[in-house]
Each structure stands twice: as structure tokens, then as C-alpha cells.
């Protein structure tokens, strides 16, 4: 142990400000990076889920269109007969 | 010869593989970093010239060498993706860029905070700090180019070309800056010297270095997995994973 | 024939041509590399000469930037002559950067870039022709005007030779490296600012060695060492940059 | 993702019309066929070789006409055409006749910047009358072209196919002058499954 008391440890032989500034800023940056990298995971998953929903809707709309088209055709055929 | 690599070139396999690696990396990073940092802050001796400000060294030097190392890694990934069309290599390069930029920024900030008590000024056009600054610009260029493209596959290719051009240029820049520095250096400025390290300084340094390297591995793994998901959003395996994990439907 | 579309984009298509076509094709004359190079070079220069703003504006920019420095720093001859090499070179970097946009942008916007990429010539050759044209249009005029600006900045008389030689060897490097940056950003809507972020860091070695050559010349020492390094940068970028530009253009037009 | 499981073989003498609503990937398909874009998966083969492996040979055999005509405003109609022809190694001595085919006589020396969008497209299309490339890939060639021009182009396509070339095109119009049994159709539709 290089320091005799806690205040001496904080003081760092007069260089406390610079030492703690360096350690503090580095820790802050790394924690932000780590957390944002982890949080992106859920964000991406939610985005993909949304995209999936959108595609489901489009597919339904197309099915509906097809059904309408075929029923209209049936009616037309009935009318001619 | 490369056949054993093939399963890892499959996005699904590498997604799950890195997922299994993550806890190990995280544990290693936590252990190494806590030992290294406690040792560096509490037990390592103060430098006889620089006093306790020397303790910044234990972050500054690992961050600086990792920032160069990550760029080297990106260049290799970019080369693989351009030569063998490996999409995963693209994803890994994209995952590395922001991590490298943050480590470069840390190296710069700690270098500056170390320089203030040593040189009496926050910034000095020291060769190492200057090339670190230029490295930061290179990183920011790669990241900006990445975000400028909407299509992530194209973004990866474009950023890969830029990374390769930058990696050819980087040694030239480093050399030119060092040369420029010795040319213009006044006699009053002393560089951040590498003191001959005693063993009780070397050990905590090694722990810190390896700890930070593991931390890089952890963050890169997280980002790599994100990139894989985003690039394979239409694959059935991603779709299954999404329907299991999405928070709101 | 209806194609059912599914999850992934997959095109498996073959184009076959009969022997008859192959025969008509063999009668076609093929352009030699030299012809193709000069064809593109001539076209780009013709266009630039008909659109003179593109030549004159970067030049005016160069002159104005250089004249701003004495106004900002003060007219003291000693100070000016000390910083003259740096000012002239930084202004040259910026002027080149400003003119880079036209290298591929208008061709990209009107589709002629696409047509060039689809021509049966190696892409690096066409790229090289375009870069040479760009240098002739923007780099060469800078070299002619630089000595005049050096007079305004009281550049040491012994340095003029070094100034011209470094510009002669250095500006092509700027055009070549810049071309990589433009090729990467040509498809991006607001690529201008991004371009400077990508390209300027790559220009640093040229700046360092060129200004140092001029400084060395001003105290009467030989500067062939710096010149040799700039020459090495020139040949290095001449051989490598066109391939990088070709690859980047393929990405940008995708 | 736009399309999948597309397996087409296009042979000499074929006229292929790619159909589909806006945004269904017609242009993407043509760009992939021309080698301008890379498909996410899959290959385009030319004489059994992937086109990325034989780029220069393939492009010697290809004429592509995209949304953008590739005409420079600073050059005259004739200069534009001869540059385009020369770049592809074609004869530049008959540019007058070619421009006549697309109804641009009298405009040879006008700077293209003074001409209309439709005229720009005509300048680009004039290349069709000199081209010896067997494969033509044309994205909306009839846009901004008048009726007479369309008829003349269709006639040119038929000639080309009869000489053993192939034409792949997208258009929203029906091909009138070409009998429908000669035209192969590829229909694209939105789909995600």
C-alpha cells in the first residue's frame, strides 16, 4: 500500500485532480459505450419486429385484393350466365 | 485449409458462438481490470520523477496501443471482406470502429491530463499525441461514412475501402508526424518518456492492458452481434429470435 | 412466366448468345488502353473548358484564402515569410478539396458514370484518365499562380524552386487521394462535409514534407530528401489509388 | 428484399419484358443483370461464367440504358453520341444517320443543355442503331419518347432479335409493333414470404 490514509489516496501526491480526471473520464466513456452497445441489441430486435408487422399487413392487403378480384370475377360470370 | 473456418462464416453460428463467449470475456475483463486498477492505484510505486501522476500511464498506454491495434484489426477485417467477400468480416469491422474511436479519445484525454502537470499545458504537439489525434480523425471518418449509407452492406464495403486506404496511410502519417516533431521540437519540451519500468510497475500494467483488451473483446462482441442481427433481419432464424425477444408487439 | 417472389433476393440468370452474334462481335474494333485513356481525358477537358467556372472558382478561392492571412496576422514581412509555405500549401489543399466534387459528381448525377463503368475497359484506366484531367484543370493552374502569391507573402527567394517542385509532385497526390474520397461519397446526398473529413487526414504527410522542403530551401540546405519522399508518395498513390477509386465507384453506383 | 427464386435463361433472339408495379424491383433486376448491382445472393451467368469473373468481356457484349441518359450538357448532341459510341469501340462515322433515326436532325450541333429531357434520352438511344452488342438491357426506354419514336424503337428491337440479339426491357406500355407471342414476360410482384 502506497498511501497511509484515504485523503492521501485522493490527493495522489498533489496530482489528484489529473489522475481522477483521467480515470473518471475513461470510466465514463467506457461505461456509456458498453451500455449503449448492450441497449442497441433490444432496439434492433424491436425494429425487426416492427418490420415484420409491416410486412404482415402488406401481405394481408394483398390477399384481400386477390379475394376481391376473384369474387368480382365470379359475379361478372354469374351476370353473363 | 480454411475449411475449419467455414462454420464460423455462418451468421447464425457466429451469433450464438459469440453469445457463448461473452460471459467468459466479461468475467475475465472484470477480474483483470479490478486487479490491475487496484494494483495500479494503490500498490504500484510512484514514479520518482513524475510522482503519482504516473498512475495515468496505466490507462493511457493501454488505450493508446489498443486504439492502434483495433485499427489494425479493422484493416484485416476489411481486407478479408473485400478479398473473400466475407459479410461477417464487414460486420466485425463495423463493430470495431466506434470502440477504437472511444479508446483513441481516452488516449488523447488521458494524455492531455497527464501532460498538464508534466508540461504545464493541456496540449502539446507531441508526436504521439498528434498521431493519436489524426487516428481519431480516421476513425471518425470511417464511422461517418458508415452512417452515411443506408444499406449496411454497402456501408461496410465503402468503410472497408476507406479503412484499407487509411491503414496504408497510417504508418506514413505516423512517420511524417514523428519526423515533423523532431524537426520543430524546441529544447524545453520533454516527451512523455517511457521510464525503464521496474517489475512492480510492469505487473499492474500487464493486468490493466489485458483487462482493457478483454473489455474491447466484450464490447466488440456485443456490437458484432447487433450488426449480425441488423444485417440478417429477413432470415428465418432472426425472425424466430425476434418473436421470442421483442418487448412490445 | 410468373416469378414467385420470396424471402431473399436471388437472381440466377444466364444470358446466352448464339454463335451468330459472336461472329458479328468479332468484327468490332476494340479500343486500345491508350485510346480509351485519351478519349476520356479529352472529353473531361472539353467539358471543363466549356464550363470555365470550374477552373476559375477554385483558383479564386486559393487566391482569396492566401490574401486573408496577412489581413489576419499582420503585414510584418518576417512573420509572413516564415509562415508562407504553410499558408500556400494549406490553401492549395483546400482549393483541391473544393474542386474534387466535380470529379465524379456530375457524371454520377447524369448517368454517364454508370455508362463508363459498363464500358469494356478496365475501370482503373478510366479513373486515371479522369484524375489526370482533374489535375490538369485544377492542379496545374495552382502551380502557375503560386509564385505570385508567394510574392505577396514575402516567401524567401531561395524557396521558389522548392515551392514549384513540391506543388508539381504534391498536387497530383492530392488529386489521386481525393479521388478515393469522392468516389466513396459520390452517392451520398450531402457528401461535401464528409468528404473533407475523409480526405484531409490523408493529406497530412504531403503537407508536412512539402512545407518542410520549402523551409529547408529557405535556409539554403538541400531538400532532395523531402522531394524524394513526396515522389514516393506520388508513385505509391498513382499505382494504388485508381484501384481503390474503381472499387469505391462500384460501391457508390450500386 | 424484392425477389427470390428467379431463375431465367435468356437466349439469343429473345425479347423479354419485365413487368410489375412501381417498386417491385424491375430496375434492381436490370441493374443486377447489367452487373451494376450485386445480388444479395445468386449469380448472373454469361455463357456459363459469372459476370463478375468476365466483366470486360460481358460489357463488350452489353448495351445498358438506364433511367439516366448519361448525356453531358456541355457537349453537343453529336459529341455526346460519338463519345458514347467510341467508348464502346463503335464506329463514329455515321452519327448523322443515327441521330436521324431518333428524329434529332438539325440538333447535331446544339449543346445538350439546350435540349429537352426527351431529346437527351433520344441522344442516348441513338446508340441502339450502331450497337453490335448482342445483349440489350433497357430500363424504360419509351419514357418521354413520342408515338412515332416508340414505333421506330420497337421495329429496331425486332430487327435486333431477328439478327440473333436479345432485348431485356421494362416498360409500362404494351409493345404494339411486336407480336405478343414473341415477347417473354417476367412479372414481379411485392412479396415477403
UniProtKB/TrEMBL annotation, chain A:
Q: Which domain of life is it from?
A: Bacteria
Q: Give the GO cellular component terms, alphabetically.
A: plasma membrane
Q: Where in the cell is it found?
A: Cell inner membrane
Q: Which UniProt keywords apply?
A: Cell inner membrane, Cell membrane, Cytochrome c-type biogenesis, Membrane, Transmembrane, Transmembrane helix, Transport
Q: Which InterPro entries match?
A: Haem_export_protD_CcmD, Heme_exporter_D
Membrane topology designation: Single-pass membrane protein
A Gene Ontology annotation in the biological process aspect, one of them, is: cytochrome complex assembly
Q: Which residues cross the membrane?
A: 15-35
PANTHER family hit by this protein: HEME EXPORTER PROTEIN D
Please state which protein family the record places this protein in: Belongs to the CcmD/CycX/HelD family.
Q: What does this protein do?
A: Required for the export of heme to the periplasm for the biogenesis of c-type cytochromes.
What's the protein called, per UniProt? Heme exporter protein D
Q: What is the lineage of its organism?
A: Bacteria, Pseudomonadati, Pseudomonadota, Gammaproteobacteria, Alteromonadales
Automatic annotation (TrEMBL), chain B:
Would the keyword Ribonucleoprotein turn up in this protein's UniProt record? no
Source domain of life: Bacteria
Listed GO MF terms: heme binding; heme transmembrane transporter activity
UniProt GO cellular component terms: plasma membrane
Entry keywords, A to Z: Cell inner membrane, Cell membrane, Cytochrome c-type biogenesis, Membrane, Transmembrane, Transmembrane helix, Transport
Membrane topology value? Multi-pass membrane protein
- UniProt-listed GO biological process terms: cytochrome complex assembly
Q: Which family does it belong to?
A: Belongs to the CcmC/CycZ/HelC family.
Q: What is this protein called?
A: Heme exporter protein C
Amino acid at each position: 500500500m502506497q498511501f497511509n490514509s484515504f485523503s492521501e489516496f485522493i490527493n495522489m501526491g498533489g496530482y489528484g485532480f489529473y489522475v481522477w480526471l483521467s480515470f473518471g473520464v475513461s470510466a465514463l466513456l467506457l461505461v456509456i459505450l458498453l451500455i449503449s452497445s448492450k441497449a442497441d441489441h433490444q432496439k434492433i430486435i424491436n425494429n425487426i419486429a416492427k418490420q415484420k408487422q409491416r410486412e404482415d399487413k402488406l401481405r394481408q392487403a394483398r390477399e384481400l385484393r386477390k379475394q376481391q378480384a376473384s369474387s368480382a370475377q365470379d359475379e361478372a360470370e354469374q351476370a353473363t350466365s | 485449409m480454411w475449411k475449419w473456418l467455414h462454420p464460423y462464416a455462418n451468421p447464425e453460428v457466429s451469433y450464438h458462438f459469440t453469445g457463448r463467449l461473452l460471459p467468459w470475456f466479461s468475467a475475465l475483463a472484470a477480474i483483470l481490470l479490478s486487479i490491475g486498477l487496484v494494483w495500479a492505484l494503490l500498490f504500484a510505486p510512484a514514479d520518482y520523477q513524475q510522482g503519482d501522476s504516473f498512475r495515468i500511464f496505466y490507462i493511457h498506454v493501454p488505450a493508446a496501443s489498443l486504439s492502434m491495434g483495433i485499427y489494425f484489426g479493422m484493416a484485416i477485417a476489411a481486407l478479408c471482406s473485400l478479398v473473400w467477400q466475407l459479410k461477417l468480416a464487414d460486420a466485425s469491422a463495423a463493430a470495431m470502429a466506434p470502440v477504437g474511436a472511444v479508446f483513441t479519445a481516452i488516449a488523447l484525454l488521458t494524455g492531455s491530463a497527464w501532460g498538464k502537470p508534466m508540461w504545464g499545458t493541456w496540449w502539446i504537439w507531441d508526436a504521439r499525441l498528434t498521431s493519436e489525434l489524426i487516428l481519431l480523425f480516421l476513425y471518425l471518418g470511417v464511422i461517418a461514412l458508415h452512417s452515411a449509407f443506408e444499406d449496411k452492406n454497402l456501408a461496410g464495403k465503402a468503410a472497408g475501402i476507406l479503412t484499407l486506404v487509411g491503414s496504408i496511410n497510417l504508418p506514413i502519417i505516423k512517420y511524417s508526424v514523428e519526423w515533423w516533431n523532431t524537426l520543430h521540437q524546441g529544447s524545453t519540451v520533454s516527451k512523455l518518456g517511457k521510464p525503464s519500468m521496474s517489475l512492480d510497475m510492469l505487473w499492474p500494467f500487464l493486468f490493466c492492458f489485458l483487462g482493457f483488451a478483454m473489455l474491447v473483446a466484450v464490447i466488440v462482441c456485443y456490437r458484432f452481434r447487433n450488426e449480425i442481427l441488423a444485417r440478417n433481419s429477413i432470415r428465418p432464424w432472426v425472425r424466430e429470435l425476434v418473436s421470442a425477444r421483442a418487448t412490445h408487439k | 412466366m410468373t416469378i414467385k417472389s420470396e424471402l431473399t433476393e436471388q437472381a440466377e440468370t444466364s444470358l446466352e448468345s448464339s454463335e451468330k452474334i459472336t461472329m458479328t462481335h468479332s468484327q468490332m474494333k476494340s479500343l486500345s488502353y491508350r485510346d480509351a485513356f485519351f478519349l476520356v481525358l479529352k472529353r473531361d477537358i472539353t467539358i471543363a473548358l466549356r464550363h470555365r467556372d470550374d477552373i476559375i472558382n477554385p483558383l479564386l478561392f486559393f487566391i482569396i484564402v492566401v490574401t486573408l492571412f496577412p489581413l489576419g496576422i499582420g503585414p510584418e514581412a518576417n512573420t509572413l515569410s516564415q509562415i508562407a509555405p504553410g499558408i500556400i500549401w494549406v490553401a492549395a489543399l483546400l482549393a483541391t478539396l473544393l474542386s474534387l466534387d466535380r470529379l465524379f459528381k456530375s457524371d454520377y448525377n447524369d448517368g454517364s458514370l454508370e455508362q463508363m463503368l459498363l464500358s469494356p475497359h478496365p475501370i482503373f484506366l478510366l479513373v486515371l484518365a479522369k484524375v489526370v484531367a482533374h489535375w490538369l484543370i485544377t492542379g496545374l493552374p495552382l502551380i502557375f499562380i503560386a509564385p505570385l502569391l508567394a510574392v505577396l507573402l514575402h516567401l524567401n527567394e531561395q524557396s521558389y524552386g522548392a515551392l514549384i517542385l513540391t506543388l508539381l509532385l504534391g498536387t497530383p497526390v492530392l488529386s489521386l487521394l481525393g479521388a478515393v474520397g469522392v468516389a466513396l461519397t459520390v452517392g451520398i446526398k450531402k457528401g461535401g462535409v464528409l468528404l473533407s473529413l475523409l480526405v484531409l487526414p490523408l493529406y497530412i504527410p504531403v503537407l508536412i514534407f512539402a512545407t518542410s522542403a520549402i523551409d529547408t530551401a529557405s535556409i539554403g540546405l538541400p531538400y532532395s530528401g523531402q522531394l524524394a519522399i513526396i515522389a514516393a508518395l506520388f508513385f505509391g498513390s498513382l499505382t494504388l489509388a485508381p484501384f481503390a477509386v474503381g472499387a469505391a465507384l462500384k460501391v457508390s453506383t450500386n | 428484399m424484392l425477389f427470390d427464386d428467379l431463375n431465367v435463361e435468356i437466349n439469343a433472339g429473345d425479347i423479354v419484358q419485365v413487368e410489375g408495379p412501381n417498386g417491385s424491383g424491375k430496375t434492381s433486376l436490370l441493374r443486377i443483370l447489367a452487373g451494376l448491382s450485386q445480388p444479395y445472393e445468386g449469380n448472373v451467368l454469361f455463357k456459363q461464367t459469372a459476370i463478375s469473373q468476365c466483366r470486360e468481356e460481358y460489357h463488350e457484349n452489353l448495351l445498358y440504358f438506364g433511367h439516366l441518359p448519361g448525356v453531358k450538357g456541355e457537349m453537343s448532341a453529336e459529341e455526346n453520341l460519338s463519345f458514347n459510341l467510341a467508348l464502346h469501340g463503335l464506329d463514329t462515322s455515321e452519327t448523322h444517320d443515327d441521330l436521324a433515326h431518333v428524329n434529332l436532325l438539325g440538333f447535331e450541333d446544339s449543346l445538350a443543355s439546350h435540349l429537352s429531357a426527351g431529346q437527351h434520352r433520344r441522344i442516348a438511344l441513338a446508340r441502339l442503331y450502331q450497337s453490335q452488342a448482342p445483349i440489350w438491357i433497357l430500363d424504360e426506354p419509351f419514357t418521354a419518347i413520342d408515338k412515332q419514336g416508340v414505333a421506330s424503337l420497337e421495329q429496331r428491337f425486332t430487327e435486333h432479335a431477328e439478327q440473333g440479339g436479345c432485348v431485356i426491357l421494362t416498360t409500362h406500355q404494351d409493345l404494339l409493333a411486336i407480336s405478343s407471342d414473341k415477347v417473354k414476360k417476367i412479372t414481379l410482384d411485392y412479396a415477403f414470404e
